[in-house]
Amino acid sequence: MTDDPLGPLDPDFAVSFTRDQRRPPCQLYLVSPLEVDGDFPDRLARALDAGPVAAFQFRVKDVDQHIAAKLAEPLQRLCADREVAFIVNDSIALAKRLGADGVHLGQDDGDPREARDALGPTAQIGVTCHDSRHLAMEAGEAGADYVAFGAFYPTTTKAVKHRPEPVILSWWSAVFELPSVAIGGITPANAAPLVAAGADFLAVCGSVWNGDEAAAVRAFAEVLAK
Length: 226
What we know:
single chain; alpha/beta; 8-stranded parallel β-barrel; 8 strands
């Protein structure tokens, strides 16, 4: 658990929470697998064509920036053609090089102010905030466009050190207009409680790419349409 200076949330907060219908409906946010070469561009096209997707995060690790840029280019074109936001994970420099729609920063990947200076006023800047309301408030004050909480469920995509309860989404939605992203082990079968709790976006990876990506996106679309 993160040592949140705000202390634990009252679990009863979730009981009285009702999603604000003035907020846009929850949307799907795809995160790439680490391997995006080979037939992955075709898989991405199938996923994007299967149902509504708001954003795609390009997430590769331990790759030279020149190689990463070459891998990103066809994926960025697919997103642009479908008006899906193309977000680069971790690297402000790569996001700037690509002219990406934005960047997603972990707690050790730079400051949102630095990203804003580099990427400009229209860039979408997201920040990982784990299970901490304090970190999320700091991110908002630094100019982030969204905050990400998680992991809500077990996941093999990355090591999990933080496991927030869905009530953090309810509290955030009730107090702040800034959108929240729920991440971590989310599948069509377990997504509904996070939507009901107030998530503005569901960030999903393995549940899409570890099987039939088009079927998975269609299944998420059914959940989000309810």
